[in-house]
Design brief:
Nucleotidyltransferase, domain 5; 36% helix
Length: 222
C-alpha cells in the first residue's frame, strides 16, 4: 500500500486572495514504511512573499525568483503522488485547497478528497484536548525535531511520516535493517539522504489459497 506524506509552504493563507505554493515536500511510504524516495520542490510564485510568511518559512522572493513555477513541475508532482496513493497531511484542508487551486489554474482536475488523510484530525481524536500541532506531537512521541527552526516542507513531511506511524499505533522498533541510502535530486540546492528499505512481499501459500477458495464457495454473493 503506497502512501505519500506531504507538506506545502505558501505565500499566505488563502489561494482565493492570490496566494501561491512556494515549496512542496513529499515522502513515500510503502506499507507504512519509508522507502527513502522523496520529492522536494521550490517554486516561483510570480508574486511577492509577505514578510509575515517569510518569518514562518524563511523563503524570500529573491531566493525563489529563479525557481520553476508550479505549471513547470506539475507533471513531476502528479507522477510522484500517482493516481491512487493515499495522501497524508497535517491540517490537510489547508494544503489541499492550495494544491487544488494550483491544479485548476493549469487545467488539471482536483484531487479526490477521499484520497486524503488528515493527521491533525487523527491526533485530536486520539488525544482530545491536547496540543496537536506538529511540534507537540513530535514531543509526545519523542521524535527529534531539533532541526525545525523554521517550517520546511520536506523536513516537516519527514517528521510527519514518523508522527503518522505513531498515530497508527507505533513504529516497530528493533526491526530496522542496515540502511542503504537513496539520494533524490530536486530543484533546491539541498540533497536529502534517507534510509531505503525494500518493500516486503507476503504472498499467500498454496494452502491459504485453497482455504480461501473453499470459503468463497460457501458464501452467497461473495
Amino acid at each position: 500500500m503506497r502512501e505519500i506524506v506531504f507538506d506545502t509552504e505558501t505565500t499566505g493563507m488563502d489561494p482565493a486572495e492570490g496566494h501561491k505554493i512556494i515549496e512542496i515536500g513529499c515522502v513515500e511510504l510503502d506499507s507504512h514504511i519509508a522507502t527513502g524516495k522523496t520529492l522536494h520542490l521550490y517554486l516561483n510564485p510570480e508574486r511577492d512573499v509577505p514578510a509575515e510568511a517569510v518569518a514562518v518559512h524563511g523563503l524570500t522572493e529573491e531566493f525563489l525568483k529563479d525557481k520553476p513555477t508550479f505549471g513547470e513541475v506539475v507533471g513531476e508532482f502528479l507522477d510522484f503522488i500517482g493516481d491512487d496513493a493515499k495522501l497524508i497531511a497535517h491540517n490537510a484542508a489547508f494544503d489541499m485547497k492550495f494544491v487544488n487551486a494550483e491544479l485548476k489554474t493549469f487545467g488539471f482536475p482536483s484531487i479526490d478528497p477521499k484520497r486524503v488523510i488528515d493527521t491533525l484530525v487523527m491526533a485530536r481524536e486520539k488525544f482530545p484536548g491536547s496540543p496537536a500541532n506538529l511540534d507537540a506531537l513530535c514531543r509526545r512521541f519523542n521524535i527529534d525535531n531539533s532541526n525545525r527552526t523554521l517550517h520546511g516542507a520536506l523536513l516537516d513531511s519527514e517528521l510527519l511520516a514518523e508522527v503518522y506511524m505513531e498515530l497508527l499505533g507505533g513504529r516497530q522498533r528493533g526491526l530496522e535493517i542496515e540502511p542503504q541510502t537513496q539520494t533524490v535530486q530536486h530543484n533546491s540546492a539541498i540533497k536529502t539522504e534517507r534510509p531505503y528499505r525494500e518493500p516486503r512481499s507476503f504472498p499467500p501459500t498454496q494452502d491459504e489459497l485453497t482455504a480461501h477458495k473453499a470459503l468463497m464457495e460457501k458464501l452467497k454473493s461473495a
